[in-house]
Write a structure and sequence with these properties.
By secondary structure, this protein is α+β, with helices and mostly antiparallel strands. 24% of the residues lie in helices and 27% in strands. Helix 2 crosses helix 7.
């Protein structure tokens, strides 16, 4: 175990340094600098002053602009009772175990979706999050395409290909993404508000305790305002990270004992990405 812990530290120090904070660049890097200093060593960074020419930065903070630009366009909204879509929750028939719960996805005109997201206090036990994937910006939100660059040139040149998918996510302070791992390069641009991240390097994947969990789906009843959670039939298992880095009150000791590689190992890297900044990971 001591040898393994020493290897963690050596790998982290070699590629990421000893700090638990993410490096910030005051200006966009050249393609060569980006490839050499960040892409090749799998090193995240925050790039400032890379989006100043995007019309979105000045236009999107206006609720009226977004609602007028998209009009009655229907978008996909993910509804959950707690803001945690695609995450582990108590099993619906065996609360002592967990299942992987996906959000109830509802299509609605953008103005309705936006007001549902931006005023969560009006809807008790309902959190809305526009977090559709699969290239939703270029499909559902196509009317906003001219407000952003089609791609980020220095990143495209460094990576050698255009974006496979471009997504737009709109949430509130209750929107939360569970610990997970991605299989591709990400450029996460914040246009309005801010997003807080906890990050682990690829060499720490064993510390996530990825296990198969039965898949379940939330269903939301508009008449009663209640959610139900049902297992998929036939049963399907989803490999997912068992770690909740924010320990619920009363479960601290149990979870720390159950997942010692995570809670006794190096801390995740933390960063907050603000409007006008891009996180590479």
């Amino acid at each position: 175990m001591e040898e393994l812990e020493a290897l963690w530290e050596e790998v982290r120090e070699l590629s990421l340094g000893t700090s638990t904070h993410i490096e910030r660049l005051d200006l966009p890097p050249s393609p060569v600098e980006f490839l050499r200093n960040f892409v090749t060593p799998n090193k995240p960074c925050i790039i400032c002053n890379a989006m100043e020419h995007w019309p979105a930065l000045s236009l999107w903070p206006s609720d009226d602009y977004l609602c007028q630009a998209l009009g009655s366009t229907e978008v996909s909204v993910h509804l959950t009772p707690n803001g945690r879509a695609d995450s582990l929750v108590p099993h619906p028939t065996d609360p002592s175990s967990l299942c992987f719960a996906s959000a109830h996805v509802q299509r609605m005109p953008f103005p309705d979706a936006f007001h549902l997201i931006s005023d969560p206090d009006k809807n008790e036990n309902l959190v809305a999050y526009a977090q559709q994937q699969n290239d939703c910006f270029r499909t559902e939100y196509g009317a906003l395409a001219s407000d952003c660059e089609a791609h980020i040139d220095w990143a495209t040149e460094a990576l050698g290909y255009l974006p496979e998918a471009v997504n737009l996510w709109i949430g509130n302070n209750l929107s939360e993404t569970a610990f997970h791992k991605d299989h591709y390069e990400n450029l996460y641009a914040v246009v309005n508000g801010e997003k807080h991240f906890l990050l682990l390097p690829p060499t720490d994947v064993h510390r996530l305790y990825i296990c198969p969990y039965p898949a379940a789906q939330y269903s939301y009843c508009q008449d009663t305002g209640n959610f139900s959670l049902n297992l998929e039939d036939p049963v399907r298992y989803v490999p997912w990270c068992s770690i909740n880095p924010y320990l619920p009150q009363g479960r601290d000791k149990t979870e720390m004992d159950e997942f010692p590689l995570f809670f006794n190992g190096p801390k995740p890297f933390e960063c907050t990405v603000k409007a006008g900044e891009i996180l590479y990971l």
